[in-house]
Amino acid sequence: MKLQITHDQDDLRFYASLDQEEAELTYFVTEDNVLDFDYTFVPENYRNQGLADQLVETALRYVKENNLKFTPSCPVVEAYANRHPEYQEFMVL
After folding, report:
1. Nearest to residue 33, comparing CAs of 76, 92, 84, 80?
2. 61-82 as b/e, with b when 16 or more CB fall inside 10 Å?
3. How far apart (Å, rounded) are the C-alpha atoms in residues 20 and 34?
4. How far apart, in Å, are the Cα atoms of 24 and each of 8, 31, 53, 67?
């Protein structure tokens, strides 16, 4: 399933609508303008389909395209970043 992901900059999240539910990746911005990805949620009925990876990929592409930095406080984001070395240079631990 390919998600249609929206970046809501006012609410600090990347999300996708799934029928009556939403999958989301939330973040906050630190004083150093680093995006700290802190929480990923996929509704139970949609898990194990690669949807969390799609959210993370979209968020990390945003970081890369805007020459930002990110902190992977969420273990899902950390695991994805560790599997994709093209995002390592943007990661701040």
Report:
1. 92
2. ebbeeeeeebbbebebbbebbe
3. 32
4. 10, 23, 11, 22
* Ordered structural domains, the chain, with CATH: 6-90 (3.40.630.30)
pTM of the model: 0.95
Spatial strand order of the sheet with 13-18 comes to: 6-8, 13-18, 21-29, 34-41, 69-72
Helices (H), the chain: 51-65, 75-83
Q: Name, in order, each residue with C-beta under 8 angstroms of 64's C-beta and a sequence gap of 6 or more.
A: 86, 87, 90
Cβ atoms of 46 and 87 within 8 Å: the answer is no
**Is the sign of the CA dihedral 85, 52, 61, 78 positive or negative?**
negative
pLDDT for residue 12: 98
pLDDT band for position 93 (cuts 50, 70, 90): confident
Residue at token pair 């389909």: 49
